[in-house]
């Protein structure tokens, strides 16, 4: 009678192979954990906050939050455009005050920025959301930070998990070390953070860091919604 010899079991993959195989799933889990961690503090601070696994879920939530026939203002935000909701809203027939349209004269640009302050719904992102439930935004012009605070009846702030930070110190570091250099990157202006990647607290004419608003609590007269997405979005 011949004896069957069993083939030896394959050795388990090494640590590198295991981590590589799980890298994307681990990252996704971590991003979701971050937005979930910010949710409770935001609610405690009076914001209508919700979090979503991905941009598609967030897109649907935005559409639900915009009443029919509402006029819309949109801040200078990569996040909003990456979600793709502006096309949906335009198809629904909303009038959108969008100062990133091509071909605007300086007068038209200014008029749109002013009109954003009195629209029914203002859509924007922010630069940082802290784990204490604060929302921190810095502008060069200031139309976004004004509209986020008072004017529009409803403000919808959308932020990817990459914008969740521990505290205000980390928020300001993010604004100067990440947001400004990346947002200004295509401007061609000789701004220190664009040239070197490092903030020098510059006096450049093109300095983007001029007006900062910290929403410690939901502004009293504004229906402010914060939608957090467990993905990297915008700068
Ligand atoms: S202060 Fe100037 S150098 Fe620093 S991040 Fe802002 S624009 Fe860049």
Please provide a written account of the structure.
With 235 residues, the protein is α/β, with parallel strands linked by helices. The chain has a single domain (15-162, 208-229), classed as 3-Layer(aba) Sandwich (Rossmann fold). It has eight helices and ten strands. The protein has helices at 15-44, 55-65, 78-83, 85-91, 106-115, 143-149, 168-183, 192-196, and strands at residues 48-52, 72-74, 96-98, 121-124, 128-130, 135-139, 154-160, 164-165, 211-215, 223-229. It starts with 14 loop residues before the first helix and ends in a 6-residue tail after the last strand. The site of iron/sulfur cluster has 13 residues, from helix 7 and helix 8.
Strand residue content? 15-25%
What is the CATH H-level superfamily? NagB/RpiA/CoA transferase-like
Indicate the low-confidence ranges by residue numbers: none
Q: What is the fold-level CATH name, i.e. the topology?
A: Rossmann fold
**Count of domains:** 1
Major sheet characteristics: 6 strands, parallel
Which CATH class?
A: Alpha Beta
Determine the N-to-C terminus distance: 71 Å
Question: Which strands sit side by side, in order, in the main sheet?
Answer: 1-10-7-4-2-3
> Using DSSP, what is the number of strands?
10
Q: State the helicity in percent bands.
A: 25-40%
Taking all Cα atoms into account, the compactness measure Rg is 22 Å
Query: In terms of structural class, how would the helical and strand content be classed?
Result: alpha/beta
Number of helices: 8
């Amino acid at each position: 009678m011949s004896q069957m010899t069993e083939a030896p079991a394959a050795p388990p993959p090494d640590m590198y192979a295991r981590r590589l195989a799980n890298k994307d799933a681990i990252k996704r889990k971590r991003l979701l954990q971050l937005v979930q961690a910010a949710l409770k503090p935001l609610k405690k601070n009076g914001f209508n906050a919700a979090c979503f696994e991905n941009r598609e879920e967030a897109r649907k939530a935005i559409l639900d939050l915009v009443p029919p026939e509402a006029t819309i203002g949109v801040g200078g935000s990569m996040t909003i455009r990456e979600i793709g909701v502006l096309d949906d809203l335009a198809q629904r027939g909303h009038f959108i005050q969008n100062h990133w349209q091509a071909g605007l004269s300086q007068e038209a640009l200014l008029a749109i920025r002013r009109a954003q302050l009195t629209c029914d719904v203002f859509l924007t992102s922010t630069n940082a959301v802290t784990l204490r439930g604060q929302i921190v935004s810095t502008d060069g012009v200031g139309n976004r930070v004004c509209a986020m605070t008072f004017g529009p009846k409803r403000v919808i702030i959308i932020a990817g998990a990459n914008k969740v930070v521990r505290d205000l110190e980390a928020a300001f570091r993010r604004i100067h070390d990440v947001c400004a250099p990346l947002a200004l990157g295509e401007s061609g202006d000789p701004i220190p953070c664009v040239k070197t990647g490092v903030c020098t607290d510059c006096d450049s004419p093109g300095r983007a860091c001029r007006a900062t608003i910290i929403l410690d609590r939901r502004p009293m007269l504004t229906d402010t919604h914060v939608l957090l997405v467990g993905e990297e979005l915008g700068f």
